[in-house]
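Appendix B. One record, verbatim.
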Amino acid sequence: MKNKIFPYILITAASLLLCAPSCLMAGEYDGIWTATVTKASSTCKTIGKAIEGDYTAEIKQGDGLTMVMTIKETGTVFQGVRIKADPRIIMLRASFLREAGVVSQKVNIEMTDQNSGKGNASWSWSDGLMICGGNYEFILKRNK
């Protein structure tokens, strides 16, 4: 009778360990965010690189793990998923026409908590004859 509470503590601790990080970090990320590009590079002469600074991103979670992020300043719409094994990780893609070619972007985001995260992106541009690309890093902060 002296250790009746111990099994409950053990079960609770085991449950948290087994479902972490998905149970602890599976918060909703819907909302308006500020994405600050902190570092950018490019091998493209005509396209240039991502411009460092602040952008407004609207993040919406669809059914299950699907995600959509729209960059207000450019109109770029990224679609992708949260990773089921670790819902803090979001992987997104976008493609659009630019300078008589197609830009394809891949974005990876790691949410630190429900109000902040960091990410990186790689992109390529091709007109069918030439190809170049670049990358950038950014931080995310939820707007209040």
